[in-house]
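Entry 14. Structure prediction run on the chain below.
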Amino acid sequence: MQREITVKEFENAVSKVDDIEPMIIKRDNKKDLIVISLEQYEKEIFLNKLEKSKKQYKEGKVHSARTVFKGLREKYGY
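Output returned:
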């Protein structure tokens, strides 16, 4: 659940808590900034990459390991 707060409320909130839930910061009464924990950010990045790879798999945009390694051996002479 998102929470909308002012910059002053943000300063107070972060000084009191160890675990920050996602927050929307307002400046001049306009939504200006979103704050999420690093853990949540990394999870979102991972989930986005996972969705992208699932889509590529469904569309057949995949290569077998055998093909990939064969190309690498040919390119780098391993």
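DSSP finds three helices and three strands in the chain.
Filed with the rest of this week's runs.
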